């Protein structure tokens, strides 16, 4: 299985960082110009971007990538999976949160990916690692 991991320290408390990264709209800032929209609310009305919610990503009216939140453990972990994508066999994203102090948080973002064409997996992961690294740097400056 091919995988990447990006680690980033945020100069903010864990609850603030978790709230930021648990909102689908945050990824519009992190991964601009890619657009992210929630197309299905979570089962918990108090946290519409939570467990069971689905987001679509893309550009303008074309948003072919769909991800579903499969685990949400407040201030600890978020997991999602890619759904309905015929090009990808397996894609899981895991975002883990660790309080380093009352005002510093370490975020570890791991993505496992397996495309149907083996050489494609490494190419996609390289692009994702770059995008996440840049996006997290941008978000870290915003908190």
From TrEMBL:
Domain of life (superkingdom): Bacteria
A Pfam family this chain is assigned to: Polyketide_cyc2
Name of the protein: MxaD family protein
Organism (species): Acinetobacter silvestris
């Amino acid at each position: 299985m091919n995988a990447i991991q990006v680690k980033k320290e945020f100069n903010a408390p864990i609850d603030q960082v978790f709230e930021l990264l648990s909102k689908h709209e945050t990824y519009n800032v992190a991964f601009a110009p890619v657009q992210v929209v929630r197309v299905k609310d979570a089962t918990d009305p108090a946290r519409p971007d939570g467990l069971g919610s689905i987001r679509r990503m893309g550009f303008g009216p074309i948003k072919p990538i769909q991800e579903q939140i499969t685990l949400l453990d407040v201030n600890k972990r978020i997991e999602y999976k890619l759904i309905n994508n015929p090009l990808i066999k397996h894609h899981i994203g895991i975002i883990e949160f660790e309080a380093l102090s009352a005002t510093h948080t370490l975020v570890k973002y791991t993505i496992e990916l397996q495309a149907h064409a083996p050489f494609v997996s490494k190419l996609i992961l390289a692009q994702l690692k770059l995008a996440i690294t840049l996006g997290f740097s941008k978000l870290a400056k915003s908190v």
